[in-house]
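Morning!

This is the sequence you dropped in the shared folder:
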Amino acid sequence: MKNKILVTSAAIVLALFFSSSNAFSWGSATHAFIDDYLGKKRGLKNVNEIYGGMAPDVFNYMFDNPFYMGYLSNQTHNEFMKVWEKARWRREKALAYGFVSHNDKWGADYTAHSAEGYIIAKAEVLKGILEGVPEYRDLGLEDPVALEVSHNLVEAGIDLLIKRIDHMIGQKIISSALLRSPEFPFLLVKAYAKDFSQYAGISYLKAVNIIISTEREFRKTTILYGQALTQQDEIMAIQLISEQMAELSESFFAAYGITLPPGTVLTPLVSFAIVKSMEICAEDFRQEILETINFVNQQLNSNEISY
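The structure's back. Tokens below.
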């Protein structure tokens, strides 16, 4: 009974989190591409802006603790100005500039996940395609979960389309993660640790350790994702990203209390879905990304975010 209550509670937290518009962003490569065009154009400032632009998703994968994940991810996507206000030095400001550009209120994610956002529209199309696949139907996913799965698959597909127009995007992601300023995890601590400790009923030290360790793992995962996108062979890149997403999906489903059918192998299904995502986005994704860059640039200027 206790375990059932815990699973139900986790599912409620996840449902609230994933049904909100900040559940997941544009993919990491798309954010990297956007931030490569915003702000500073060269050197470590540009590198830090790119990493900062991906980093609001740092807490999106804490499936082992959806209570923490829901709170922290909401903070990074909606209370993003805390990071900007705590940034003092130039490297911190570069990180914070990218971080703010990502936000769900008027940043890049707004164009992806607002009521009629691009990702939502494409995810609905992909969901319809997947419902015709027996292996997908066998998963028995409820509609909110199925739609969120489609969101993530579409985002991965767009990331691979980004690779077609910027062959160096994988290397840019890797460089940004390797060279990001060491101040960044402590910037997150300054912005969020105190309120997080109070919300979660944990010590300040534990809150600090959770934030720092989660950012460390996010950084590693980001490097692996960038490595997949460095592959010259697109089929190999799709395979590597599909393997990463399939592994992540197991934790995602487990957090929802979903037990996959015995012998389920997700990678081929993920690969199929990513290819379909690329097909349904290929004709219009470029225009959407360009409009997003222009929109975010205007919003940064109107909100006086510069350094």
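Headline: The two ends are 54 Å apart (CA to CA).

More detail when I'm at my desk.
O.
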